[in-house]
Design a protein that fits this description.
Helix content is 36%, strand content 25%.
């Protein structure tokens, strides 16, 4: 496994936000973590990438215990996160934002090739390469945040709510890009409130509720599970389930 959480607990003061969860992501997988607001999904990602220190449990990445390791050290080891809200540098240009994603790298030629690759994936960013990040639309800022993470050449990409606040057409474009990145061999852990889309593109999924993971399994099985359909897909148990398209 590339990523393993073993009994992970995270608390804010006396309040447990994550209550001893186990989770694993194998190399080359696209795995989603779905759940309602406040379930503990973002807290889990922050604990993985070193922004929060777990109260208990372990985070293992690429065979090593990284529990509590600072984020900047993890980026250099191939673990990158696209945060909820994008977190771009609004005063920097598109190209400067992307260059910031490669700050741990010293291979200038490789960085230049990867920059052009990001522009191939996101032609809008190429058109706006000299604009400041703050002048971009919400969808373009999300593209920029993903592109910046890709500039670090991640082995594992953590995506936190990439569709939040976007129009349906842009949501579809972002998810197509996530699939394209996965096909190129990047392992992905996706947090997403749009449970249907997340499960349709993933190989496996975890359902998080109140800091726990009561359900997990192959994405197709979760899509067909009456509990998931009723709670997260807005369907009754008797409703038909749309066919799952394997986009990975």
């Amino acid at each position: 496994m590339l990523l393993e959480l073993d009994g992970l607990e995270v608390a804010y003061g006396g309040i447990k936000a994550v209550k001893g969860i186990d989770l694993a992501v194998d190399r080359g997988e696209l795995v989603c973590l779905i759940g309602a607001n406040g379930a503990g999904k973002t807290t889990t990602l922050k604990a993985i990438c070193g922004l929060l220190h777990p109260r208990a449990g372990r985070v293992r990445y690429d065979g090593e215990d990284i529990t509590g390791t600072p984020s900047y050290r993890l980026v250099a080891r191939g673990l990158a996160m696209v945060p909820e809200g994008r977190g771009i540098f609004r005063q920097l240009t598109v190209e400067e934002n992307l260059a910031m994603g490669a700050f741990v790298r010293g291979d200038r030629q490789g960085v230049r090739r990867d920059l052009e690759r990001v522009f191939e994936i996101f032609p809008r960013l190429a058109e706006r390469r000299t604009q400041s990040g703050g002048t971009l639309s919400g969808g373009e800022q999300q593209m920029l945040a993903i592109g910046r993470a890709m500039m670090s050449r991640p082995k594992l990409l953590l995506l936190d709510e990439p569709s939040m606040g976007l129009a349906p057409l842009l949501v579809q474009r972002i998810f197509e890009t996530v699939c394209e990145i996965a096909r190129e061999g990047v392992t992905i852990l996706l947090i997403e409130q749009n449970a249907r889309l997340a499960l349709e593109i993933s190989t496996r999924g975890y359902v998080m509720e109140s800091g726990t993971i009561p359900l997990s399994g192959p994405a197709a099985e979760l899509l067909a599970d009456p509990r998931v359909r009723e709670a997260y897909l807005g369907e009754t148990a008797a409703a038909d389930v749309e066919p799952v398209q394997d986009r990975t």
